[in-house]
Description:
With 235 residues, the protein is an all-alpha fold. The protein has helices spanning 8-35, 37-44, 62-93, 99-137, 149-166, 169-178, 184-189, 191-205, 211-231.
Amino acid sequence: MTAHEMTFMEHLDELRSRLMYAVIALVIGTALCYTFFKPLIGFIKYPLPSDMQGVELTAFGFMQIFAIRFKLAVIGGFVLTSPFIVYQLLAFLTPAMKKNERRYVWIILPFLIILFLAGASFGFFLVLPAAISWLQAQGVGELAFVNKADDYLNFVALFTLAFGVSFETPLVILLLIKLGIVDRKTLRANWRFAYVACFIIGAVATPDWGLVDMLALSAALIVLFELSLFLARWL
């Protein structure tokens, strides 16, 4: 029986099976990251200034220690298993698509993952250290700083996610052009509005509204916008 001949209940059974596979993978990835808690904590402390990397993050309460470790394990587990989870989602959705649409989705998927990883890496390894140093310098000599583990983990996760998602811009623009929703010449003619939109997104997407990361993300979005228009010439 082909996918389009499946009954509603059979579709529900397939969805349940694929969700179960995704959950099992996430549980395994989470358990693995929970086991390797110390290396993970050391890794997420990379953006901190060198004099702070050897200082322990602060937790208030015994339950918070477990909550932080579990949260970090879930985030790490999701990162590890996300390709498999995305595959399960697409394997359920693509049978309902036309043949050329399925082909287009599977072609885009690797670039989707590569751009997200590139954006997340750019934000984590290059922008975040400069942003933290700039933020810390604003209170030197006046404010005592306590690096609360939960706040720091949320900050790093949101910051990295913002850059990863923002780097998907070229694919979004190319897809809109490919579907005929927007025209390349129209985007080129209205580049000033696009640049303003990049600065607005840069201001909204960064979790701390720090000047360094806002400008870095906005500049990256502008470069990606121009790259999208360049690539659109061959669509």
